[in-house]
């Protein structure tokens, strides 16, 4: 069973960060994504969820 403290999101950048709004590029940097097809695992917090929601069109999101 996954508890609230151990909930994680696996994020993969599937579209380029170039030619995007500066705020969207900052969200990607905040999530630790720099290159296409790069995958990171982040904590499932409201702050991270907000950034993911803003740039969801660039990402593949999986719950871990």
Provide the domain count: 1
Helix content: 25-40%
CATH homologous superfamily identity: Ribosomal protein L30/L7
Number of continuous helical runs: 2
Structural class by helix and strand composition: alpha+beta
Could you tell me how far the N terminus lies from the C terminus, measured between alpha carbons in angstroms?
Answer: 11 Å
Shape annotation: globular
Beta-strand percent range: 25-35%
| Name of the CATH architecture | 2-Layer Sandwich
- Sheet with the most strands: spatial strand order: 2-1-3
Please tell me how large the radius of gyration is.
Answer: 11 Å
Mean pLDDT: 94
What is the CATH C level class, in words?
Answer: Alpha Beta
What would you call the quaternary organization? single chain
* Low-confidence region ranges: none
Largest sheet: 3 strands, antiparallel
Tell how many strands the DSSP assignment holds. 3
Taken in chain order, the helices and strands follow as EHEHE
- From the 3D structure, determine the CATH topology: Ribosomal Protein L30, Chain: A
Which key phrases capture this entry?
single chain; alpha+beta; three-stranded antiparallel beta sheet; 30% helix; globular
Provide an overview of this structure:
With 64 residues, the protein is α+β, with helices and mostly antiparallel strands. Helices cover 30% and strands 25% of the residues. The protein has one domain: Ribosomal protein L30/L7 (Ribosomal Protein L30, Chain: A). Strands 2-1-3 form a three-stranded antiparallel β-sheet, with no helix packed on it. Helix 1 (22-31) packs across helix 2 (46-54). The longest helix has 10 residues, at 22-31. It starts with 7 loop residues before the first strand and ends with a strand. The mean pLDDT is 94.
């Amino acid at each position: 069973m996954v508890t609230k403290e151990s909930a994680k999101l696996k994020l993969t950048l599937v579209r380029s960060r170039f030619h995007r709004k500066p705020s969207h590029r900052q969200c990607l940097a905040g999530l630790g994504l720099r290159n296409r097809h790069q995958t990171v695992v982040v904590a499932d917090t409201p702050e991270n969820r907000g950034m993911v929601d803003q740039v969801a069109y660039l990402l593949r999101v999986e719950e871990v």
